[in-house]
Structures are given as structure tokens and as C-alpha cells.
Design goal:
- The protein has about 100 residues and is of the alpha+beta class.
- A four-stranded antiparallel sheet has the order 2-3-1-4.
- The longest helix is centred in the first third of the chain and has 9 residues.
- The chain starts with a strand and ends in a 9-residue tail after the last strand.
Length: about 100
Amino acid sequence: MYVVTNRVPVAPDWREQFEDRFRRRAGQVELQPGFVRMEVMRPETEGTPYVVQTVWQDRAAFDAWLKSDDFKAAHANPLPKDAFAGEGRLEAFEVIITAKAGA
């Protein structure tokens, strides 16, 4: 598995619009080959960024999505710069250990 995490510092006045974008997102990442899941996490404390995490079967699946028309559509027409309280940070990980409840 390949996990990509995007930490997005959203300005307080833009939180609702940011979340709404994901609820109505233009792309259909769920239809992409190799996509496993996506989670958008709202921070509970002020000054903490949102976390958007996608899980892919492997890095090749993620790289293919980056080159897709769906990716372009999903990232077209972004929020203005003042919607963000700083620079975001993209992190990528190869899963080496997984634990599940009841396993």
C-alpha cells in the first residue's frame, strides 16, 4: 500500500468552503485504478492543518492518477491564496506494517 497525506492549513473563515469542496469534489478518485480510500480530517485545535489522506494499492496507481484528467478536474479552480494560513505539505509513505482490530 501507498499512502499520501496532504496537510492543508486552512484559514478559519474558509473552513466551510474547504470542506464543501470535498463534499462536492469535481473528480471521481474512487473510480481510479488502484485507489483504496480517502479521508479528509478536520482539526480539533486552532492552528492545526486539515489532513487529506489517500490510500493506493501502490505508488504506480498514485502516479497514474496524478497524470489523469480526473486529477486535473479535481484541482481546477482552486480556492484563493487567502483561504490558506500557510503552505501545505505533501507526505508519501510505503506501508510496511498494518494492524487491524480482531485480527
